[in-house]
Each structure stands twice: as structure tokens, then as C-alpha cells.
């Protein structure tokens, strides 16, 4: 059983080379919830993710929709920016792991039981990629997810946590301070499940992952080299993607919780 710990802080202040993990749909959209914060903090990662989802590999006979369906239950591990872009590399020295736990989003999101099973498969895929990178001598840090699946996907956190515990990765779950306070207040007031509170908050509250969380003094930024199996995953994938992709999610928010046009 894997060791799972939880900390309160800002996930974006994780040590250099850490793997920041979040759950994604396979349509190439980061349009709501914590994905918006990731999109604003790591625009290069969003572009890589979008291209990966919206273009079938060169030579593949799969349609785009068939390609997207094949991604469910897998993980895309995006390395930090290369050393050619030192400014960006020093600001965002993290790997971004996208777990494809639902094919779609919004009203078409997969059922909770499917999301849980897809999470199990995606974590196995991610663990394999991480093991290969470490075996090759690449510097890969700690694995830091948010409480994946428990926001817009509406899955009870304890079910996803059980999958994490059964996996092969040592994981540190990072929660924003505002979320912890809200959970504590809800439990003290009526003994309600934190997951229920979080699902209600997801409908309109601010996404506090990037701005309201307490920064840990242990976590510092740094530079890193872009390595890993990402090139294998994206080999042959067309890179032509529209500049401004509209995901059709009317509930989009920015990192401060403001609704986007």
C-alpha cells in the first residue's frame, strides 16, 4: 500500500521537479475548477495537452474521437520547459501529470464508478512512466496531486484516496488553506462530509489553489531540464491547434474565482 499524506499549502510552490497531478477530460479542455489555475500557471502544458487530445498520431487510422476515447485511463506526463526558455523554466519548474479519468466534462462527465476505475488505470500508467524516468537517471521529485476527481467530476474523495493508497506511488496531496477551513467549518456545524461541501463549492466558489493557499517555506522554485517519456507519447502528434480553443463550459473561472467570458 502506498503512503499517502496530506498537506495544506500552495501546490504551485512545490519543490522543483515535483510532479503536479490533476484529473482531466480527454477532450482537451481545461475550462473549469482547478484546471483553470493549471492553465493560467502553465500555459505551455495546456498547449501540449490540447494538441495531444485534439490530434490523432500521424499514421493512425483512428478518428479524433476514437483517439480521445483511447486516452481514457492513461496519463500524459508533461516535462518542465526546456533550458532554452530560462525565464519560464525558473517560474514553472514542474512536471504536469494529466490523468484522463473522464472522457467528457460538464453534463457529459463519466459516472463516478467509471472515473474511479479510470483513475486506477491512469495511476498505473503514470507510475510506469515515473519508474522509467528514474531508472534512466532523470531527476523526478515528489508526486503532488490536489484532491483529484472531487471537484467538477463529483466523485467522493475517499473513493479516489483508496485508489491512490492502492497504487505504487508515494503521494503528497496538497490542499489550499481555504478548502481546509471550509471543510472544518462544515463538519463543526453539521457533521457533513467535506466532499459534499466541496461539490457545492465547485458550483460557484473561488478556485483558491493558486492564490489563497499558504506558501510553504520549504518549497522553492528552481530550474530544471525537460526530460521524460513525453516525447514518446507525443511522437507523431500534429501540433496544429487553434489559438483560442472554446471548451463550451459556461462555468469557467479564473484563479481568483472570476467568471471568464
UniProtKB/TrEMBL annotation:
Residues covered by the Macro domain: 21-162
GO-annotated molecular function: phosphoprotein phosphatase activity
Enzyme class: hydrolase
Record region (Disordered): 182-261
Pfam family, one: Macro
Reactions catalysed according to its record: ADP-alpha-D-ribose 1''-phosphate + H2O = ADP-D-ribose + phosphate
CDD domains xref list: Macro_Poa1p-like
Bias-annotated ranges (Basic and acidic residues): 195-206, 228-243
Listed EC numbers: 3.1.3.84
GO BP terms: peptidyl-glutamate ADP-deribosylation
SUPFAM superfamilies: Macro domain-like
Signal peptide: none
Record keyword Hydrolase present: yes
Keywords: Hydrolase, Protein phosphatase
Family membership: Belongs to the POA1 family.
Biological role: Highly specific phosphatase involved in the metabolism of ADP-ribose 1''-phosphate (Appr1p) which is produced as a consequence of tRNA splicing.
Protein name: ADP-ribose 1''-phosphate phosphatase
